Amino acid sequence: MATTKLNHLVDFLKRVPFFSEVAKTSLLQLCKEAKTEHFGKNDCIIQKDAIGDGMYVILDGKVKVHDQNHLYSILFPTDCFGEYALIDKEPRSASVTTLEETSLLKIHPKSFVDLITKDRGFTKGVLSVLIKRHRELDIIQESLAASKREIELSNSKMLGLIDGAMDAIIMFDSNFKIVLANASANSILENDDVVKRNVLYFLDEDAANMLESLVKSYVDGQNDVMNTYLPKEVGVIGSNETETLNEGTISTYGVGDEMFYTLILRNIDDRVLAERKISSLKNQTKYLKEEIKQLTNDYGIIAQDRTMTQVLDLVEQVAGTKATVLIQGETGTGKELVARAIHDASDRSDKPLIRINCGAIPANLIESELFGHEKGAFTGATTSRKGRFLLADKGTIFLDEIGELPLDLQPKLLRVIQEGEFDPVGSSETIKVDVRIIAATHRDLLEFSKTGKFREDLYYRLNVFPIVVPALKDRGDDVCLIADKMVKQFSKKMNTHIEPLSVDQKRLFIEYDWPGNVRELQNLIERAIIVSNNGQVNWQTIIPNTSSNKSAMENAGSNRILTSKEMVVLEKENILKALRQSNWKISGENGAAALLQLRPTTLTSKIKALGITRPV
Do 211 and 319 belong to one domain? Predict the structure, then answer.
C-alpha cells in the first residue's frame, strides 16, 4: 500500500474511538497488515451464528446490525464492529448487512495479537481506550441503577395512586385478558384474583358487545383515537352476581401487537337512584301544582259577580309588583286561593310559595317556624332548622291569620318587611332574604290594633295593597256556579252521577247566608253526594235555611202567635247571628253570651240542645 494512502488511513483510524489513544507509528504497522474490502448494497458481512474472523472499521458507507427483521443499530464511517473476533472464536450474536456500497478495513486477529505482544505503545493505547470505556460503563451502570430506583419509585407511586383511586381501573390486553386491576375494580368485580381472566366475562351482554366493537374498530383503523368516554352505561356483574351500573372511559397504550387498554369505571347506582327520586319528586310537584290549579279554577276563582271580578282585577294589578298585599275576608272565603293566584301571576311563580297559619302554631314555637333556630337555642333544639322565611327566599310567603301573630314577634316581622333581614333564634348571624309577603286575616286589623293586640305600624306596613274578598252570600249567583262545579267534581271523585241543580234548588243556595262561605259549601256538597240516592239529593234537608225556616223568620215581627216549633227556629237563628257576629266566641267581652245577655254556661247548653255546630 502506498505511503500516502497509509498515512491517510492512519489519520482516519485516529478518529476511530477504539484506536484514538494509539500512537500513529503503531497504527501505521496495523494498517500495513490490514486489508481493505468493498461490498455492494445489501451484502452480508457477518452472518448470525457464524464464527468471526476479524474486526471491521467502516471507511465509508453504512451498515445495519440486525437479527432478521429486528434492527439493533445502524453504523457509519469511524464505527467498528466484530471486536470480539480479535480475542475469541465464538459464534456471532447478530448479522451485519450493508445498506449501501460500503468500504471496510478488516483487521485480522493474528495481526492485532502480534501488535499487542510486540508493541508496548499499541498495547498501552488500546488499554487506555478500554479503561476509559470501562469507566464510562461504570457511570452508565450507576446511572442505570439510579434510573431503576426512580422507575421503581415511580411505579410504586403509580400503583399506589391506582389502588387508592375510588374509580375502578382495569387494564387488559388485545385478547381482553386482565393484566392489572385496582382495589376498586376488585370490589365491583367481587373478585381479588382477576388477573389473566377475560374482562368481558364480568360485563353484561350489551356492555361486552360495546367493548368488543370499540376495540375491533380501533384495531381495524376505523377509530384513530381510543381515549374517550364510553358511549353507553356499562353493566358489571360481579362474581357474586351483584349487578352495578357504571359510566366509564377507555384509552390505549403500546405499539403494534403489544397493545393494552385501560378501562376506568365509576359506579352511578346512587346517582341513577337520586335522578329517579328527583324525577319522581318533579312529577309529584307537577301533579300537586295541577291539583292546586284545578282547585283554584274550580272552587276559588269562579267569578261572574262584580264583587269577585273586582278582586280578580286587583290580583292582576298587583301580581307583577313587589308590593306587600293584605287580604281580608271572612273565614272560608278563599283568601289563600287569592294569595296563590297573586303568586302564580307574578315573576316569582317558579319559586316557592310558603304558607304558614299564624293562628295554628303555639306561641312558643312560631318564632322558630318563621325565622329558624340554631342547635341548642332552646330545650329540644337538637339540630339547626331553617325557618319559613329562608325557605321562601326569592319566592313568596303567605302569612295566614296574621292577626293571631303574638305581639312580641310583630317587631321582628316589621324588620323583615322594612329591611329584608332577620336573626334566627339563638343566632347572632343576620340573614338577608328577598321575600314577597302576602298576609291574610278575617279581623279588622286597624280596630284590633286599637285594643293593643296588634301593632298599628305593622298594620300600615302590611296594608300597602288591600284586597277584600267578599263573603259568599254577597256574590249573588256565583254560589250556584261554584256549587255546580263542586257537584261535578265530587261526583267524578266518588263515581256517582248527580242530577244538575234545578232552578228551585239553586234558589235554596242563594237564599242561605253561608256563614262558613266556600268552605261550608264544599263540605255540604261532599256530604250531600255521600248520602245521595240514585243520583238524587234532597237539598232542602242539606241546606239549613228551608222555606219554612225563612217563613218563620219573616213572620217573627208580626202580630201572629208563633208556635213552639217556630219559636225554637227563631231562637236558633238568633243565637247563630250572635255567634257569627262574635266570630263564634262564646264567653268574655264581645262574646255571644254577652250579646244575648246570657250566662256562658246557659248559652253553651242551648247550643248543644239546638244542635248548633260551627261550620268547618
Answer: no
